[in-house]
Amino acid sequence: MSLLTAATVLTGCSSTVSDAKITMATGSEGGVYYSLGNGLADIWSGRLGIVRPQVVRTDGSKDNVRRLVNDQAQVGFSQADALEGVEGAYRLRALARMHDDYLQIIVRADLPVTKLRELSGLRVSIGATGSGVEIIASRLLQAENVTPQAVNLGLDDSAQQMQEGKLDAFFWSGGLPTSRITALTKGLGVRMLDLKDELPQFRQQFPVYGSATLPASIYNLQSGPVITLVVRNFLLVHESMPDDVAEALLRQLFEAQPELVKAHSAARTIEQRSAIETSPVPLHNGAMRYYRDAKV
Residue 81: CA atoms inside 13 Å, Cβ hemisphere, count? Predict the structure, then answer.
């Protein structure tokens, strides 16, 4: 059965919250989207009395946006830069700004690679096709004229191929920590690339991105902390979602935030005041109603 027929689309259903049937587009199994998606599914089913949302593994942000546009999902995670160029994306709305994703460029420690430009000619995964990782990696490599032997692999396959010696480096963009990378660092010597030299000019070209320090303690990196790129994450729905459903989903996200933190520590950084900062994606009317009631 296809995902479209398996999921009951909220459009056209009763706006009664308890009637809502939700499919949630997340990401790879080892990533933060997937962990938070399962956490939200438990919260919403337990607190709202709805059928537990179906949490779907996907190729990431761009894939999630397309699924939302095509009614193959009713809720999805996306990086702020992933809606560009997707037909129909203008009809999507945000419930909240979630955690920020950190770009993580992982390189085998036995290679003499410490700079982005040194990836030229190496076997490098730039993320799954249609993912937010691919968007960032492609933009960054092109801006710096770096030409690796690029392949499109998701997080799990990238980590596996690096362990097998088939990959020299890979890009990943996710919350901290990402469990699959934590597992990789325990079994294989790796380092992360520092982007302090590249980011000032790159951010002038792409102001949607920020910069931040990735602490060495996150993955017990021997190479120390690194300066890297960060991008905002949004929780998205279609504009046609009934206002009371959108408001209820968002309200439970914040009221049950301690439970969501148990699903992944990245949820600790979600705050009401910053959650409304979803430009260029408009807030859903139901979300606006919640934030007004919360006096944000």
Answer: 22
Angle at alpha carbon of residue 177, lines to 172 and 183, rounded to 5°: 80
Task: Tell me: do 111 and 56 sit in the same domain.
Answer: no
Residues 94, 187, single domain; the answer is no
**What is the amino acid identity at position 85?**
G
DSSP state of 204: H
Cross-strand bridge partners of residue 97: 234
Kindly state whether residues 152 and 177 are assigned to the same domain.
yes
CA distances from 3 to 36, 49, 64, 71 (A): 20, 22, 13, 10
DSSP string, 275-296: HT--TTSPBPHHHHHHHHHTT-
CB 60 within 8 A of CB 28: yes
d(CA 147, CA 122): 8
Check if the beta carbon of residue 199 is closer than 8 Å to that of residue 227.
yes
How many residues does the structure list for the chain? 296
**Where residue 163 sits, what CATH number does that domain have?**
3.40.190.10
**Domain co-membership, 120 together with 43:** no
pLDDT band at 15 (very low <50, low <70, confident <90, very high): low
pLDDT digits (tens, 9 = 90+) for 48-79: 999 999 999 998 899 999 999 999 999 999 99
Both 63 and 114 in one domain: the answer is no
Query: Both 115 and 224 in a single domain?
Result: yes
Residue tagged 């809502």 (tokens) = 20
Name the residue range of residue 212's domain. 101-231
Domain tally for the chain? 2
Same domain, 223 and 238: no
What would the pLDDT profile of 139-176 be if each residue is shown by its tens digit?
999 999 999 999 999 999 999 999 999 999 999 998 88
Element (H, E) at 103: strand 92-108
- The reported pTM is 0.82
